[in-house]
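The instructor's notes for this session suggest beginning with a concrete chain rather than abstract definitions. Hand out the sequence below and ask the class to guess, before any prediction is shown, which regions might be ordered.
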Amino acid sequence: MQQDTLRQSAEQQFAQEIEELKKEDNNTRPPNWLLSPQAVVRYLMGGTLSNGFEVTAKYIGNRRLMEIAVATLTTDRALLLYGLPGTAKSWVSEHISAAVSGDSALLIQGTAGTSEESIRYGWNYAQLLSVGPTPAAIVETPVIRAMKEGKIVRIEELTRIGADVQDTLITILSEKMLPIPELNTQVQAVRGFNVIATANNRDKGVNDLSSALKRRFNTVILPVPATMEEEVEIVQQRVASFSKGIDLPIEKPILEEINRVVTIFRELRSGVSADGKTKLKSPSGTLSTAEAISVMNSGLSLAYHFGDASLKADDIASGLIGAVIKDPVQDKIVFQEYMETVLKNRDGWKDIYRACRDIV
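After discussion, reveal the predicted structure:
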């Protein structure tokens, strides 16, 4: 059945890595943790074990950030992963949960419509009407299940949730319990329980966290990749994982195309060409690493299903333009100027210039 799953969870996809790390992990494990904090960071950052087994890197960047994030979860404070869209907040959250609890599926997706019942608990109204409020009539949320089992619960896009609903977490995070006044009882958190939340500061639906809630979190800011090489490595790794997951063969090395997409994104983000000679206007979008990965995945799919399976400039041009041009007026002007001043004059880039020009 798992072979037909469109997307396996982190604990399924990397089950062998977690098992190999468990065998070699001689450090102290906090209650209900699968791995010690040191082994969790090793799982995230990758490396070679003493038996020669290769653990793939899940996060490419500053190791200290991962150490701080994992150490936070051993304390009484929750973890908030904060940063621009596309800086791997959800990816890191999922993999930390997989390595700590062996279960990354205890998830609440924050939206403008997320209600208090989505975080605390709901009721089975058929049972509620027939027998009244009883423990059996409660519909448990991922938060309650995590509290009972001593696991990590993930809350995605916390700042998308309304401020009054966000504050539902205050009692849970400070008292480590969830009162159920209808039953005159409470759910006590088992050791190992904690919360990982993610948030970004570029969302139009952002609701600021109250100071009371902020104090319950340790915040780790995940930056955009510091170097070109780092960002290319991230895109290359994630594209390879995507292609493998959907049985999409890569007919030839695609590193050159990844370099070109990442270069374009970094130049437009920074507002200056790679050689520092040309100042550029930046578009309204974030042009994140996640969007670069999406452009490459889309291009590979086009090349395989509607081409000769060899990735070309034509295959990535449409995805590239879709990522850059969010505002059909202003962003189009920005990108056209970039094409004429940078792409057109760069050696070996005439094909991508022509492909983009034919679409814009």
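Then share the key points. The two ends are 43 Å apart (CA to CA). Residues 228-359 form one domain.
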